[in-house]
Write a sequence for this structure.
């Protein structure tokens, strides 16, 4: 009678799962390292450095209407969408809502969108008063359906003294 040999099982289920886990773990680690390298080369970890931060550093030295508009651009805004456009004249700033910057899924009622626009208006008013300009703000001059959100009329003259200077100086420190 021929001898019957029983073969030993190749790989147990436990071994297969262990090797699959190690392989998947290696792929995840390699992906994380790759993402980290990509992030580092693109400046993700260089907080406060580069072109996007130039206005933060330059703002304290700006004067006149440039300082006022700069304060509006530095205002806090939802998800850093910067939902505004400015039209600037020597004594007037018109603030428009940029509808391309809206977030219909996260902010369907535009509450955050308009809060960001309000923050830009308030920052510009504080900055203008900080350099001795008086400000007259007209909101929604063409109605709430228009993209024109506000007009800021600026003036200087006798009797106008800088106000809210502490708040104005804090604009460049707010991040």
């Amino acid at each position: 009678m021929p001898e019957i040999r029983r073969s030993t099982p190749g790989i147990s289920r436990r071994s297969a799962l262990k090797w699959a886990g190690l392989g998947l773990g290696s792929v995840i680690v390699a992906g994380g390292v790759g993402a980290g390298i990509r992030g580092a080369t693109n400046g993700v970890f260089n907080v406060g450095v580069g072109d996007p931060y130039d206005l933060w550093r330059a703002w304290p030295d700006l004067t006149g209407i440039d300082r006022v508009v700069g304060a509006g651009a530095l205002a806090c805004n939802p998800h850093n969408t910067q939902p505004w456009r400015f039209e600037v004249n020597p004594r007037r700033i018109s603030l428009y809502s940029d509808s391309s910057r809206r977030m219909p899924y996260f902010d369907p009622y535009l509450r955050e969108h308009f809060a960001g626009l309000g923050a830009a208006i308030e920052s510009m008013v504080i900055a203008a008063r900080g350099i001795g300009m008086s400000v007259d703000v007209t909101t929604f001059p063409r109605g709430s359906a228009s993209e024109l959100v506000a007009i800021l009329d600026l003036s200087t003259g006798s009797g106008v003294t800088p106000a809210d200077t502490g708040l104005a100086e804090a604009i460049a420190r707010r991040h």
Summary: Strands lie at 84-89, 92-97, 134-139, 148-155. The radius of gyration is 29 Å. The mean pLDDT is 85.
